Amino acid sequence: MGAYEDAAEARMAAAKAAKQAAAGNDEQAKKAAAEKARKAAEEAGIPTKAGVAPVATWTKANTVNTANGPVDVDANGFAADGTKPIAVTVKATGKVPAGFTEGPFPKELEQFFGSSSGVLGYRIETLTDKNGKTYYQLSIANSPNSSSTFGARFIKDASGKYVTYSPNSGDGTPVEVVDTNKTGQTYTASDGKIFTDLNAYNAYVSKLKTEEKARAGKSAYDILYNEFNRYGMGSLIEPLKKFIQDGLSKDELTLKLRETPQYQERFAANALRIKNGFAAIDEATYLGLEDKYQSIMQNYGLPASYYERGALGKQAGFENLIGGNVDPITLEERIMEGQKVVKGSKDIKDAIGQFYPGINNSDFLAYVLDPKNALAEIKRKVAAAEIGGSAIQSGLTTNVARAEELVAQGITKAQAQQGYGTIGSGLQRGSQLASIYGEDPYTQTTAEKEVFGLAGKTEAEKERKKITGLEKATFGARTGISTGALARDRAGAY
What we know:
Elements: H1 7-23, H2 27-44, E1 62-66, E2 69-73, E3 101-102, H3 110-113, E4 121-128, E5 134-143, E6 146-156, E7 162-164, E8 178-179, E9 187-188, E10 194-195, H4 198-229, H5 234-237, H6 241-245, H7 250-258, H8 261-266, H9 269-275, H10 283-299, H11 319-323, H12 328-342, H13 346-355, H14 364-369, H15 375-393, H16 400-408, H17 413-436, H18 444-451, H19 457-475
Antiparallel strand pairs: 1-2, 3-4, 4-5, 4-8, 5-6, 6-7, 9-10
């Protein structure tokens, strides 16, 4: 070809001589360099003018992947430095996707992406931001039909070293990335579809992700609906179908669910809890309480009306219990107290009606299950009714004040039965003797003081002994109110 082996060498020489001619100070030397550049340019096929050095211009037209990374070239395949980089082609192994270089990717990129071990193929994408700044992204293929692009961006600095790319739009807005690939590179989606345009590829991948998200959302909705429908609460989920299919997070779905009228109706007791000064409870705790309440009521044989389910699986009978913060143990205690009256004797039922006429004797369970009625108050009234019933059983009468006094003294139902039995067996004879001998009347109140250890016990005991002594002195026999009748251990003794 003349002085040069080929056009590439001539082109390099022309470019070098042109630069020397432009930079020199010696006019004769500049003319000699210009002539040298012109001759070299002619051999390279570049138009020239005698005595004038060709203009050393270079315009980027493409990018090629080399063993050392991407290199920008002009329309003739030359780099800015006049060299013609050698493109690395994909080996026809049938494994690496079209447009990819067989892996591993360049070791210097491991600082961004970690080890390239196991990478089937790679491709370095050339992109520009809206300000015209060039940067790169790495795409890898781990199988013949799929590829992925790393989000990390990088560039080459002045020394040719790969460094992190930091986009700067100048106004704080995201930088729009556009594809400047003109090399015919391809992009393979997860379903195997191949694209030559990056924007089209990205749009398709986005569409695939949306479709997958919708399928996953529908599946999640179906599972959730079926699970809730088992408890009669399917309609709670229906308003959330769109949100579930849109892939809202669990926390976002929970908030949306709690805003629906159906939810607020189903878990109405939470509003009562807040009104009563208690914190709202989550759905699992709420449903757990309902299950425990129902189990306890069934175990004690309560009518099904107390725990029947309505729309949405709601058990309206439990709202006041949950709203009043009644725990299962306390509920069981309330039911046990109620059963003492409901399953108790007629005497106890008569006593509760006499002592507390404001309580509906026919539905005493409703009274004990109402959280507004304190458990301690319920226990006091039931115990008083049992004592009153014991008095009635022995043919005696008593009032709520005396019954509650005995409750305060710790007298139990069994002690009351024994004590009133004792009083009932000797009261009539004691009253008769007091009248015969002109003593103070011997009454039930007097006998209760001695038998149950109430205030005035000592005086009551003296009175009894006095009248029994008078009878013994007169008749020399045992009386109907002897110590064998009244002076035994008091029923209320511990």
